[in-house]
Each structure stands twice: as C-alpha cells, then as structure tokens.
Design a protein that fits this description.
The chain contains 17 helices and 15 strands. It has helices at about 15-20, 30-45, 50, 55-60, 65-75, 85-90, 105-120, 120-125, 125-135, 150-155, 180-190, 205-225, 235-240, 240-245, 375-385, 390-395, 415-425, and strands at about 65, 100-105, 160-165, 170-175, 285-290, 295-300, 310, 315, 355, 360-365, 400-405, 410, 430, 440-445, 450-455.
Length: about 475
Amino acid sequence: SAAPELFLDAEGEPLARDAAMASGLSVGAPGVLAALKLAHDKYGKLPWAELFQPAIALAREGFPISPRLAKLIAEADPNSFAPEARAYFFDEAGRPWPVGYKLANPALADTLETIAREGPTPFYQGDIARDIAKAVQNDPRKAGKLTEEDLASYRAKEREPVCILYRVDRVCGPGPPSSGGVTVGQVLALIAPYDLGSTPLGAEAVHTIVEAERLALADRARYLADTDFVPAPVAGLLNPAYVAERRGLIDPNRAQAHVAAGSPLNTRQGAFGRDATHEAAGTSQISIVDDDGNALSMTTTIEQAFGARTIVRGFLLNNQLTDFSFLPVDEEGRPVANRVEGGKRPRSSLDPSIVFGEDGRLLYVLGSPGGTAIILYNIKAIVALIDWRLDPAQASALANFGITEDAVLLEPGPEWDSLAAALSGMGHEVNRVSLVSGQHIIAVTPDGLEGGADPRREGAALGD
C-alpha cells in the first residue's frame, strides 16, 4: 500500500534515514516464511511441524547472549525501540542485557507452535497478520502503510538464477530484485581476461577488482530493481560486447574518477535516474550441503540488526522498505528504478551463490551478510577460491576490500599497510575500516566437504 513519496516529508525532502528505519513506515510484508513453505512443498522430506521443534525449544528455554549480540544491543539507542522491543533487549532502566544473560522468548515459541501446527496461513491471513498490520499502522514513532490485505496477497516467487562463466567455472546467484547475482557476475566478467596472480591481495589485482566494482555498481544504481515493475536489462549488462566496452574504461595503473552508468542493450538511454540507496547490514547466511549432494545457499535479512525495532508476537518486524530509494526521481527528474511502489519488492544486494565446475560438478556453496558490501565479500571469496586457490577457511578470513562509493575500503592491520600505500599511489582514496562480513563457504573436494566460517562473526563450520 506504499506510494513513491513514502519517505518524503511535507516539504518533499527525504526523511532522516535512522528515523525512517526505526518506525512502522519501513515495514514491508515478511517473505521468508512463505519462501520456506514453498521450498518445503517442493523439496522437503521431514514433516513441516517437525522442523520447528528445535527453534521452539530454544525460544522457550532461552539462550545466553553472545558477545556480538551484546555489542549490537549496547550500541543501539533504547529510545529508538518500540516499547515491547525495548523491554526485551534492555532492563527497566534502559541498560542493555550483558553477555551471558539468558534471553528467552515464550511469545515467539507460541507463534512458532501455531505456524508448525497450521502452516503460514495465520501469519499471512489470520490473527498474526492482524497484529502485524495493527503494530505498523499504530506505531507511535511513525505510522506505516502495511495492511492485512498486503500480507494476505503476498506470494513467494521463484526466479531464474543469474549464471556467469568465470575462468572455466559457472557462478550462479539470484536475479533481481536482488542485485547480487547480476553485479557480482558483471564484475567477474569484467576481470576475467586479467591475470590476478597467485598471491592473494596483490596491489594490481585489487586495483583491477575495485575498478570493475566501480563500473558494475554504477550500472546497479541506475538499472536494477524489481523486474515485475522495471525492465531491468540483465542480459544487456552481462552481454560480452557491453562488458568489453565497459572494460575499456579500466586504466591498469590509475583509479578512475567517479564513473557513470553505461548503456547496455535493450535500454532507453536516460530512462532511469541514479539511486544512491545504501543498505544496512542486519543479515544472516547459511550454506549447506547434505548427504545426498543437495546444496543450499540462503541469505535472509530484516535489513538492519533489529529491523524496525518493533516486536509482534515475539518476532522483530523488518525495516526492509528503506532498501527502496527515498527519492522517487533523481536530480534531473528521471524516475529511479528502485523507487517505492505498492506491491514492489525493494532492491537488495543479497547474493547466495553456488559455483559449478566445467563438468557441472558442485564446487562451492557460499554467501555473506553485509548489506551493499555483500557484493564485495562474495567477489573477494570467489577470486580467493578460484584464482588464489585458498580453502574456505582461508578465503573467508582473508582481508576484505572493495568499493561501494568512491573510496576503496580496506580492513585495518599492519600487514595490509603496503597494499594501502600502493593503492594510494594509483590514485585511490583508501579508507581503512572494519568490514565484518560473516561469510560461510563450503567446498566440495575429492576428499569430502571443507567448510569455512568468517572468524569476524560467531558463525561455525559443522559437519558429520
């Protein structure tokens, strides 16, 4: 039920991002439950209700707050939370719960028991849907537009993956409205002719990769959005002739100034304006390969760490709508492809990926949290695995780098000072910042499975 002006104030100016996020205005129809039901109906073996039992037990019994969760709570403003969410994460004085505090959620356990017993229907069409819509529309911080009708009409959609040949391997990711598969694919196509060396993070290799990212992200900002509403030129962006044309803009020795989007095939020049939306990083990733050889890469998100900072029936509501452009048109008056529209899915950077060898054999399952930086993390991991021959643990732990706007982002650490200096010498502005990816990678080898979980977060690689 949203309109393009959703995030504009009475004067037509965009709302402050933090205030918009922490409000009912940012809440979209939750989609994960519908997607899980669709997947279970097509591929599931165990009974639906059985799948919920571990989560129900954990919610009812509680779990000790981890150091990462404690840090996220401590860094949050308790006054930005709706009352029920504030009471869950903070004590009566507004102090955050400490590491080790046992956090139980009986309301969530009750909700999960209902869904286990009755399926998703109560969530999208029953009492739970009514409570979600009521919380959004009556949010005292800023009321939102989500209705019971919006929830009832939501459907999970299967879309064709986007696959690109890199070296001799086939890298597959999601298509729009996620921009991850297209943008990662475009970067890999741009860098494919280059020798990136055998040593990880050589200055010339990093320069080549970030220059390719600069070009691909400019196209992403202009063209990618929900293809049910916008004719995103996926094939044109990955067309070899167009990629070669864009590759010609890469100077092997010097950083480019700010670059503009290109003109891929089957697009109307000037039809869409540039979108400057920046995504928050409240996302989770799981990568799985089972005994039968089935593979799953799943990235799920409520946008920022605590979503809209509202709890209904024990679960947090997302702030997913702030992934839309706050401005419906750009400075030249052109419509932004990723503008708000009713029933439209916002663009994301999610990129759950699977890599196949030239013989079609499964090689890697990977993905990462990280907002817009998901694209950078997955590019680094794929290059580390395929070009630099690192194992999953090494690839996930390797220093993160990349570009999301004009400056190159590079993790701190004295071991990377010479790389930073070399990039600066090529004309790059280099910002040394923490890049907490949370990558999960599985490699399928002749000797079995190898897993790697990013040590920057609290994930783990587990197997039988």
